[in-house]
Write a structure and sequence with these properties.
The chain is mainly β. It is about 15% helix and about 50% strand.
């Protein structure tokens, strides 16, 4: 049973999740010191219900022709706020 307020279990991305993050590459780049990353492929994600929805996402990207794994977090506000998805933090997986 998941802990109240904690992130849920890893989920496999579907078309809705891929679409949600497909336009986030520029924001992810800025969180990775503007490295020239391409080809975002989400491998798994977790969600946390807050006053909106937090995401913790694992993905692969291409950097200078090499595949690298990244982890990033994002916040999707409640619909009535009419605010966009915001990438909060991103880093390369060690």
């Amino acid at each position: 049973m998941p802990l109240t307020g904690a992130y849920g279990e890893d989920k496999i991305p579907d078309d809705e999740i891929n679409s949600l993050f497909s336009s986030s590459l520029d924001s992810i780049r800025s969180n990775l010191s503007n490295q020239s990353i391409e080809n975002l492929t989400i491998t798994s994600y977790q969600t946390q219900v807050v006053a909106g929805l937090n995401y913790r996402v694992k993905a692969t990207v291409t950097v200078a022709g090499e595949s690298k794994r990244i982890i990033f977090t994002a916040f999707k506000p409640l619909p009535h706020t009419q605010q966009p998805l915001e990438i909060k933090e991103a880093h390369f997986e060690e």
